[in-house]
Amino acid sequence: MRRFATETGRVEAFSDGVFAVIITIMVLELRPPGGTDLRSLSQIAAPLATYALSFVFIGIYWNNHHHLLRASRGVDGRAMWANLNLLFWLSLIPFSTAWLGRNPAAVVPTAVYCVLFFLDGLAYTILQQALVAVNGQGTPFAKAVERDVKGKISLALYLAAIATSFVATLGSDAILIVVAILWLVPDRRLEPLIGLDRGDV
Hints:
201 residues; mainly alpha; globular
């Protein structure tokens, strides 16, 4: 039986705290409109829409991150650094969300927003591969994540959104919404592993 130095519990707890802080920072960036009627909400329509999209993405990453760590038999130092790498790029989402919310049609804020999501997706893939190394090739965990079709499609769509941002910013927004819809259903590849005793494999 292979021995692992660290269980995933502390990494999960720390990561959950970071996810909570990210969402808190994003909502604190929202400012109420100047007026008091419903029409005044149109003043913050763009920041609110950007916040909603970012919130969905953070929720998707939190959900799938939870499944990923729960399915793993443990973590090692490399996986912990890969996890920190993911959290670093995710922690920049509030910045890009606020910038794009204030400049919804601007090219550079849109491109930066898309680039950060690409880097988030890339970091998640790196974490996934680091955990494969922990669990070992040929294990149920490795077999569950080896194809990762949605992950590869998402990275391609992020790149398409980056390129589109220099032509039509609304097109980039539409592509990101497609990615979000793609991931609204949790990663079912890992669900059968979550209930297993991690020492059985």
